[in-house]
Amino acid sequence: MTAPELDSLRLLVLVGELGSIGQAAAALGMTRPSAGKRLSLVERRLGLVLVDRTRRGSALTPDGRVIAGWARRVLAELGGLLDGAQALRARHETGLRIAASMTLAEHLVPRWIGELNRAHPGLRLGLEVTNSDRVAELARAELADIGFVESPGPFAGLASRKVAADHLVVVVARTHPWARERRSLTPAELVNTPLVVREHGSGTRETVDIALRKAGVGPVKPLLELGSASAVRSAVIAGAGPAVISALDVADHELVPVAVETVDFGRVLRAVWPEGRRLTGPAAELLALAVRRSSRR
Which residue intervals define the domain HTH lysR-type in the entry (predicted)? Predict the structure, then answer.
């Protein structure tokens, strides 16, 4: 048995919906005779009478209604296939797929992308903003051509290069008692105070925990775990509690930086890509200009 053509299935479905071969033909841009021949061919191929043709119009037979129902499912699946193919094509047509952790995406990556766009006005760019762990996963799986992370690593399965330096600072709201302190906090005071923190997988959270362990006091005590730097800032300003955030995020005058003794909150911001793969084209250009811009700071 030879399968009917898709246009013939569309025609059959429309005959059932419109009650007329002529109207169904017009909807598909066919002539009435051509539509009649198509339907007859489908009936011969399937060995079934599908359309009851009368002077008052056309209606599907009981067998025709069953076949039309199956045809609708076939056409719906085809629509899904075509939509999926379009999505895949759009992904492949994106000239550069970038993933960036949130601090980098908020403060640095837009400048780098802007410069790359000025050099290549027609270049299509895709940017996914997430935490450092997820950026590394995307780069490893080659779902991003290049990623930018703020966690200290190590980065299994990835090559990396420094693109910038950053340091973290303790911040509080102006109404917090620490805002009036004239001395530096001790590491013990910081670690014994519940903090507003980022989620596990965040480069900021990992940097804080590592720095405090090196100072001999262990990881932070979370008061709130939030999924973005802006949410952490807002919580601190609202008086929820202290936080340790990137110096790049301390632009709001409602945030008061607080010094801490002997804890090194410095960190390196890195580009990452699959190990063993050489960056080329726009990805290599983006890395080069990120490094170049960093050297000017």
Answer: 4-61
